[in-house]
Amino acid sequence: MNEFNPYINSIDLTYLKDICISKGRLVSYKRNEYFSRAGEVASSVGYVLDGALRYTCFNHSERRGFNTGFVFTREFVADYPACLYGIPSEIDIQAVTPCKVYVCPGEELNLYFERDAENQRKARINAEQLFLMVYSRLLDTYRKTPEERYRDLLHRCPEILQVLTLKELSSYLKITPITMSKIRRKITFSE
Fold it and tell me: For 155-177, what is each residue's pLDDT tens digit?
C-alpha cells in the first residue's frame, strides 16, 4: 500500500531498511499493542515487515484521539522528531493489525546521519519529503471537501478499506463517522 505515504516512492530508503534489519531486532505486535506512547521518549525507528500501524494524537478538550497517519508493510514507523532528538512523543503509535517490525534504536540512525556529508544529505531529503507530504495533506484540509479527500484516498489506495475500519479512516480525514457514511452513500448512489 505504498501509495498511502507517497514520500516512500520519492527517495531511496534502502539504507534505512538495512539499518533497521542489521542493527534492530524483529518484534511482533498484537493488534492494538503500542510501538510507542505519547509522553514517553520515542527512541526507536522500525521497518514494517508485515502489518499496519496508526499514529494517533489526543485532543484533550474534545477528549478523543485523532488518527493522523498510518504505515503499512515495507514502510517505516517512528515519531521521527522524537526519535532523532530524544524528546517525549506527542503521539501514540499502535498496531492496527498484527505486525512484525524490525525495531532499531534511534541512536543508530543518528550515528549513520553523522557519519559523512552524503548521509547528512539523505537525512535532509528524508525531512524534506516528509514535510512535503504533511504540508500537502494540511493544504488539502482547506482546499478539498471531505468527499474529495475520501475519493482521493480511495483512488490512491483502493485496498485501504480491507485494512482500516471506516472509523479509523473518518478520524484520519477529520470527519465524523456519520459524515463518512453520508459520503459513502452519496458515492454509491451516484455511481
Answer: 888 889 889 999 999 999 999 99
Output the pTM of the full model.
0.89
Q: Provide long-range contacts, Cβ within 8 A and 24+ apart, for 21-28.
A: 21/47, 21/102, 23/104, 23/105, 23/108, 24/102, 24/103, 24/104, 24/105, 24/108, 25/102, 25/103, 26/100, 26/101, 26/102, 26/103, 27/100, 27/101, 27/102, 27/103, 28/98, 28/99, 28/100
Chain-centroid distance of CA 106 in Å reads: 17
Q: For 41-88, how does the pLDDT look when each residue is reduced to its tens digit (9 = 90+)?
A: 988 999 999 999 999 999 999 898 999 999 999 999 999 889 888 899
H/E stretch holding 168 = helix 166-172
Are 68 and 91 contacting, i.e. CB atoms less than 8 angstroms apart? yes
* Nearest C-alpha neighbor of 48 from the set 27, 67, 64: 27
Rg (CA), the chain: 17
For residue 48, the tally of other CB atoms under 10 A from its CB is: 22
